[in-house]
C-alpha cells in the first residue's frame, strides 16, 4: 500500500483558501492516527528568518496561523510551535510576522527548542552521536512544516531537511564543518535525523517557493500548491519530480540505503514550471556562504568535537578501524590513531568499541559558542518580557 501524498492547488494565502486546502490534505492523514481531537500536537515550522511579507525564506505566517486554526477547530488538546531558528528566537520571528496575538487567542504555545539530549540512533543510521531537541517525544502528533526552497548543498529542501532545525544552532555549524565537504555525507546525516524523528505528518508550503540561491537569499517563485504526506521522504521524492529536480542528494542516498518506499498521490496534482536551481557550489562555497579554505580548516579544528582514545582501556582489537566509514582511523603499532582532518564525526568507532575505550571530547570553542548562544536567547526572552 505504501505512503500517501496529498496535493491541493492554492494560488494565494487567502485564509478561506488555506482553510479549505488543509481540510483536504491534512484530514485524511490525521485519520491514520485517530484524528486530531484530544491529541497534543507539535508543529516544527521552517522559521529561518522573516524579512518581508511573502518572503520565500520561511513558511508563510498566514499558513502557520491557518494550520493552528485547523488544529484548534479539530479539538487538539495542545498546540505548540517549536523551532530553533539560526539567529533569532522562534517567539521573536513569530512576533515579527504579526501573528502572535491570533496564535495566543488559539492558545498556541510558541517556544524555542530547549531540551537537547544525546540520542541513541536507530540501527540503520550512519551517525551515532546526535544531540537533538527531544521535545517531539512529548507529543502525540508531530507536524513537520517545511518550505519548498532551493539549497546550495542539497539542491532542494522540503520535509527531510527541515528536521535539521532540531539540532542546536551551534551544533548545526559544527555538523556543516564536519560533513559539509561531502554533500552525500551531509544528506546521510539528514536522513539519520529523519529516521529518528519520523514525524507523523509533513506539510509543505509551496504556494510561494524559492528558486536560485537558496536557502536564505534566493528568489520568490509562484508554485501554487500545498502538499502533505505521512512520510517526509516520500513527500520530498514526489515534489522533486514536479519541480524538475533530478539530482537531490537526500533522495540519492535514501535510495542507496533502501529507505525509499512506494507512495500514492491524491488531490490536485500540480502543473508547475521547473524551478531554477542554485549554481553548483565550488569547494570554497560548499555551504552556500563564503568560507576561504584556510578559514574552514581553522574552524573545523576549533569547533568540532572529536573521538579520543583511552589507551589503558584499548585492547588493540582493531574493530574501530574496521568500522570507520571514511577510513580516517588507522591502527599504528597496535593502537588506533585518528586523522582528525578527515574524520567525519560519525562516531562509529565509539559505538563499536567493546571496551568503551573511545569517548567524545567537545572542543573548548564549541562549548563557548554554545554558551553564547544560550545567553543570547535568554537575554532576548527577558527583553521581550
Characteristic terms for this protein:
35% helix, 8-stranded mixed beta sheet, 2 domains, Rossmann fold
Can you give a write-up of this model?
It contains 13 helices and 16 strands. With 385 residues, the protein is α/β, with parallel strands linked by helices. The strands form 5 sheets. An 8-stranded mixed β-sheet has the order 4-3-2-7-10-11-1-12. Strands 5-6 form a two-stranded antiparallel ribbon. α7 crosses α9. The longest helix has 21 residues, at 364-384. The radius of gyration is 21 Å and the shape is globular. The relative contact order is 0.14.
Structural topology:
Layout: E1 3-9, H1 15-30, E2 40-45, H2 61-73, E3 78-83, H3 90-97, H4 100-105, E4 108-112, E5 116-119, E6 130-133, E7 141-147, E8 149-151, E9 155-157, H5 159-162, H6 169-179, H7 183-197, E10 201-211, E11 219-229, H8 232-242, H9 249-256, E12 263-267, H10 293-303, E13 306-309, H11 319-322, E14 329-332, E15 335-338, H12 348-352, E16 358-361, H13 364-384
Parallel strand pairs: 1-12, 2-3, 2-7, 3-4, 7-10
Antiparallel strand pairs: 1-11, 5-6, 8-9, 10-11, 13-16, 14-15
Helix pairs in contact: 1-2, 6-13, 7-9
